[in-house]
Amino acid sequence: MNRNPTLKIYTIAYLIFLYAPIILLPLFAFNDSKVIAFPLQGFTTNWFAEMWADQQLFVAFRNSLLIAVTSSIFATILGIFAARASTRYKFPGKGGILGLIMLPMVLPEMIFAMALLVVLVAVGVPLSLFTIILGHVLLCTPFAMAILTSAFQSLDRSLEEAAYDLGETPASTFRLIILPLVMPGIISSLLICFTISLDEFIISYFLGGNQTVLSVYIFGQFRFPAKVPAVMALGFILVCVSICLLTIAEYFRRRGIAKTGGKDTGGFL
Amino acid sequence: MTFSAEKPNMIEFRDVHKYYGDYHALRGINATIKAGEFFSLLGPSGCGKTTLLRTIAGFEDISSGVVLIDSKDMANVPANVRPTNMVFQSYAIFPHLTVEENVGFGLRKDPRSKDEKAKAVAEALEMVGLKGYGKRAAHALSGGQRQRVALARALILKPKVLLLDEPLSALDKKMREQMQVELIKLQRQVGITFILVTHDQEEALVMSDRIAVMFEGQIAQLADPETLYRRPASRKVADFIGTMNFAPAAVLSEDASGVEVDAQGFGRMTLSPDQVMGGATSEGNTIGLRPETLTILFDGQNATDREVFGTVEEVVYYGDMTYYDVRLDGAAEPLRLSMRNVPGRPVLDIGAKARLGWSPSAAVLFR
Q: Which domain of life does this protein belong to (chain B) (predicted)?
């Protein structure tokens, strides 16, 4: 085997470019200096204390949490309906309809952020947390549907027929058989949607009115150099939380596949 | 194996048709299945046998006709209240439940006490040979064990009819043969009507009281295994059930006592009316003989009935059996015949001359 070292170097360079900036977050979050520059000045947890004391940050965080929880729940419920329809039923225009539901996944967010803004203003809906939730549900539903479709697909259709054959109604079959078996997919969908919503900037910025969410607030703080170390501290916490959530989501997705005896065809991680 | 005629009808199909869009899946099924019978639906894939089974379960609506179970019309009776239970091809064991919970699943609305239900579950598990497996997780079971759980889960509800959709196809050969015998015993023990869907003719012959052979949405022949094997209604049925040798024949004369024919390689013979098949469908005149009804005669052996001569064209040695292809003098196609191997008897070589013994009473004429 005579491997070309260029590919190896390329891969390493790529990974450094991808992850090195994230490693800088904890470095400067604990660095005892207002300036983001090397050499490091010593260890401190002051920035975390400063961040904790910031009242505006607290409000932005609470807003983000509310939006993320609400939109992930709505997106997952809509995802369940769509995934069920795509795996079980035949109807005219199915391919087109499912394609349109999935489109926001690849469509530039800016486009429907602008479109929604124009429509909401024209109709006279005041911009608020509610309008952000509306946008986030649109954005998250395709992800929920993708995850849940794979959960519903790995479900053997004869399981439903067996439950029905043994005397259950379609409703109790859904509750006793389908729901427990796709539950890992549902949890995984909730967590992914939560993360997407928490990170989201454009829709939150366009449709938020005078309400601030975390991502928009953080971006605003970069205008004040003195605030940057505290933002670094916040960023570090967000990285940790995101890694935890994605790990939990992947764990449930894999467990769901193992439980139904299916074959893992790869997910988000 | 024969079935007494006094048994009541359990299932009746009256001119059942099923369309999937333009596709005509069931084309006028008329049949009666008796109570307590082990009945098989046999045919190649796509012949409609599974569709027919699913019309009994209630998973498929029929386009026209009537399905009766125990003399009740099943139109508008949904699957969850029909007196039938099904063992699925994939077994459909609920993977998130234990063996016990799977078997007891259908008892959820049963008014009996918890202890009585637990006892019923234990009995059902014992019946299928899974005593003590109750607490195991269902997804950790082997194929054969899943099969047994599926059986116990269906039988615990004491259905009038048990439907089995190719239940043995996922098992290896040895396991399959073992389960065939167990299923027959189980059916005798519980006395429930079993309806088996299979594409394996040997499985159907071994297990069934009666078999319906299906092709292209129609029943080609409905008979007990022996009749099906010895007197197939058409060349197609004969070809599907085991192997049959065909030889073109000319009809010389016929009257009420039988038909006199001259078959290529075999010569003249007279066949009784029950040996004449398919008067309605014109398949040309052909006689059929099963491989085991032809015997190679070795030195010193005499034919019990008739004798013909030919040349060995192919020899396939199977250990207990040897299959020969022999072309009779004056015949266009070679015949396949199977001989049990006996110690001290030689296996013939290709090109050897062979003397065959046979009897017209084993032949059938397809017209």
A: Bacteria
